[in-house]
Amino acid sequence: MASRRALQVGGATVAVGTVYYLYSAGGNPSVAEKKLEHDVSAAGARLKGQDLSSKEAQKKGEVFAKEAGATLDRTVDSVRGEIRQADKVITTKMHEAGSKLDQLKDDGTKSLDKAYKDTSKELKQTADSFDKTVTKKTAEAKTGISSWLGFGGK
What is the pLDDT of residues 139-149, one digit of tens each? Predict the structure, then answer.
């Protein structure tokens, strides 16, 4: 875990350094490389307390640039791998979400169908009950009216 973290920090540092040198060189990689070589050799000379010749500085800068390039390449490859892995996870999650959405849609349709059937059944029962009540009351009313008019018999 610690080595992975160190690799991430080192990679980020290299990436930031690369961006700095490319920006200061106006986006020209050759100029950025030369500037990096110069800065590295000057920093090395200051640390050692020596004054390096331009050939030595150039050799040391080339070595450093190659090492930095290799580190950058490893970091880029690592990031690409993590992106591929994240893409796989995202794709899987999208498929899972699609399946869940389809399931919810099916469940919702089934619920609506059931509610429709239940409501229809209740409505039919209520209508039948109402119809029976109306028929019964109509018959009672007919009998009552007929008895008022003297048509009903006792």
Answer: 887 776 666 66
Token pair, residue 73, equals 């390449």
Look at the chain and count its residues.
154
pLDDT of residue 82: 92
In whole angstroms, how large is the CA radius of gyration of the chain?
A: 44
Helix (H, G, I), strand (E, B) or coil at 26: coil
Residue 68 burial by Cβ neighbours in a 10 Å radius (0-12, 13-18, 19+): middle
- Are the beta carbons of 32 and 25 closer than 8 angstroms? yes
Tens digits of residue pLDDT in 95-113: 999 999 999 988 889 988 8
Q: Which has the closest alpha carbon to 57: 71, 67, 43?
A: 43
More confident residue, 68 or 80: 80
Distance CA 59, CA 65 (A): 10
Q: How far apart are CA 46 and CA 22, in angstroms?
A: 24
Phi-psi group of 26: left, alpha or beta (phi > 0 → left; psi -120 to 50 → alpha; rest → beta): left
Q: Are 62 and 36 in contact (CB under 8 A)?
A: no
pTM for this one? 0.37
Rounded to whole angstroms, the Cα distance separating 67 from 87 reads: 30
